[in-house]
Structure formats: C-alpha cells, structure tokens
Amino acid sequence: MKQYNLVLSGLGGQGVMTVSQVFMTAALRKNVQVKLFEGTGISQRGGSVLSFVRFGKSSSPKIPLGRGDAIISLEISEVASVIQYLKQQGQIWTSSGTIHGYYTKLTPELYPIQDDIEAMIRLKTTHLHMIPADRLAQEAGSAQAVNMVMLGAFSSSISFLNTDSLTGAIEEINKKFATANLNAFWKGYEFAKKERVAE
Fold first, then answer.
1. Which residue stretches of 110-177 are H helix?
2. For 25, which of 19, 110, 113, 128 is 20 to 30 Å away at the CA?
C-alpha cells in the first residue's frame, strides 16, 4: 500500500498508546506493513504524549517533519505540540474538549484560547475535524473512552484498515473493557460519517 503517516497526541492517561496499539494490531491483522514509535514525555503527570504510526513501507518509525498525513489529538491544545509533523493540508482530527495538563493545572491562564488554537491550525490546513468526543463517550457509557471515540471517528475516513480489523484489535487488546470501548468506537464512527454526509 501507499505509505500513510499518522501522528497521535494527547495527555498522559488519555490512552494515546492504546490507540497506537489498536492501529498496529489492526494493521498486522490485515497484513499491512506498520511501524510504531511511542514518546511518553512526562505522561505519568498528565504531560504531553505523542506517538507515530507509519503504515506501508518506511525506513524508520519516526515521521519526518512535514510528512504526516493526519493527526489524531485527544486534547485540542496538544495539536500545537505536533503540528510541525503534519504536511500542508493534511487532516487533523481532534476532540473539542479541553483538559488542563501538568503545567496549566498549576497556571490555568497559560492554557491557550480555543479560537487561537483553531486559527493556528488553519494556517496549516483547512481539513480540521472537531469531534465532541467527551459527550459521545458519555453517551456510550464510558466517559474515559474519548480515545476510542476519536479512533472511530478517524477510521471513517480511511480505507486501508476496515472496521472489522479495528474492532477485532480493540477486543484483543483489552478484553475487560471491550464492550464499552466498542460502543465508544461506533459512536465516533457514526458521528463522523453523518458529519461527512452533511458536508
């Protein structure tokens, strides 16, 4: 398949690494070449977390600057920490909810204004998809499953991994919470599908 570079971002405890593992497991199920890079930072304290998932043939798990096809962010302000990896007019899929990380918990006034974040994003791309992931996760019965909502929403836009491979990977990785995670996945998927039809 043609190479596809995916950047994931969020805060420690949001499940960025779980989403990465689902993508990797789903790719292996479909015999798609995949490489994974995980960078945790101070994740244990709610610091920034990033991950790269590279589908198709690549020489390194790290995505070069300006070569990312898409970003999935579990917290909107965290887009700023990884946007340099996105290619011009790449896709950004982000939760519209805001969460204070380690530093802005201490000094909330440092948290950026959402309009400023969106303006910064639109300098790079017009392909911004904001998903009410907090609300959808609650509707799915698991407020913690924002990561699965975002996974489902993004998956509605790709063809190289189908929903069977992704949902199978979700079940495989965390059997205990599989039902709740699958509910959240489908909430995100259906929301994004409807939004695309509305466009």
1. 114-124, 133-139, 146-155, 163-173
2. 128
CA-CA-CA-CA torsion sign (96, 180, 162, 194): negative
Cα gap 34→47, rounded to integer Å = 26
CATH superfamily name and code, 4-198 = Pyruvate-ferredoxin oxidoreductase, PFOR, domain III (3.40.920.10)
pLDDT tens by residue, the chain, 199 residues: 899 999 999 988 899 999 999 999 999 999 999 999 987 655 455 678 999 999 999 999 999 999 999 999 999 999 999 999 999 999 999 999 877 565 555 566 666 778 889 999 999 999 999 999 999 999 999 999 999 999 999 999 999 999 999 999 999 998 899 999 999 999 999 999 988 755 5
Rounded distance between C-alpha atoms, residue 157 and residue 140, angstroms: 21
Q: Are 190 and 43 in contact (CB under 8 A)?
A: no
User: Token pair for residue 27?
Assistant: 């790719």
> Which amino acid is present at 111?
Y
**Segments making up each domain of the chain, as ranges:** 4-198
Three-state secondary-structure class, residue 115: helix
Q: Is the pTM of this model over 0.85?
A: yes
